């Protein structure tokens, strides 16, 4: 489920709502026009994972969680904020729950792409989809694009792996018996063992499965060197997807990803040999982490009973999404190509 935190920032002059200006990196008041510069530009650094386990920071008090009755997304807002719709799917049916907001991030990668530019990039991306139905295009042009911060854990660690396996190698030879060539396959097996050492940086684990990592990969990369120390002022005007996963769960997932990468590396060391019964014993040390918020724009279009989402990297503007296809456009395209091919064939035949 997607949990969205809306943390409204109030103007000191008129108590109006402040919005973070992506282009100028300022907080702007919608009501009185007050402009507040964001002076602190301190980059975040990795922290020891043990520090997170011993003392995890939490969100501000006086917050409540609202759940979208249509898509299941959850929004966490302050008690003074009015929830009128779901930031993820746009539905207006939301209800209050008893859940708590959870762990607060320590790093934020800010939006560099403005909401208007995000809409333009989504339009440019969609205009290149030749087989999209025309009525879908009309609906998609009217969709809202919402900016959210999406939570991920980025792990760094040093590993030493001791491994044992059975290496199999098949040698092929041929012989001639009479007039017939015969192929012989001989399999050799030998035990192997060794030590493999690695340093892993920024192993990303999504803290909310509403967006799977395989989907997030389509709009990567995100530049973690530009990550700032988390301040709630950056959230003004944007939502924040909350992390239902506990830190220990994300670390277990990271260990699985790292273990798979190590196994693939070990198998690659032995060339044409197939490794059977590979067993690894991995020691992890110097485990560091960043609990970061990534800037993502999400838009949605309801079409014939299905929801089609588009995602835009709020740092680079890279776009990914899904669209329906028009059977008529596909048929017309290939029918036209077939007609052209037939016409060219007739012309060639005339001059032969």
The coarse silhouette is flat
Largest sheet: 13 strands, mixed
User: Residue share in helices?
Assistant: 10-25%
Distance between the termini: 66 Å
Count of individual helical segments = 6
> How large is the share of residues in beta strands?
35-45%
**H-E order:** EEEEEEHEEEEHHEEHEEHEEEH
Structural class: alpha+beta
Query: Which ranges are low-confidence, i.e. pLDDT below 50, for 5 or more consecutive residues?
Result: 1-5, 79-83
Give the overall pLDDT as a whole number. 80
Instruction: Work out the count of structural domains.
Output: 1
Radius of gyration: 27 Å
Strand tally is: 17
List keywords for this structure.
352 residues, alpha+beta, four-stranded antiparallel β-sheet, flat, disordered N terminus
Give a structural overview.
This protein has 352 residues and is of the alpha+beta class. It has one domain (3-321). The chain has 6 helices and 17 strands. It has helices at residues 49-54, 115-127, 134-140, 213-216, 247-269, 327-351, and strands at residues 3-6, 9-10, 17-21, 26-29, 35-37, 47-48, 63-68, 74-78, 94-96, 107-108, 145-177, 180-206, 228-229, 239-242, 274-303, 306-313, 319-321. The strands form 2 sheets. Strands 1, 6, 7, 8, 9, 10, 11, 12, 13, 14, 15, 16 and 17 form a 13-stranded mixed sheet that branches. The protein has a 4-stranded antiparallel sheet with strand order 2-3-4-5, with no helix packed on it. The termini are far apart. 28% of the residues are buried.
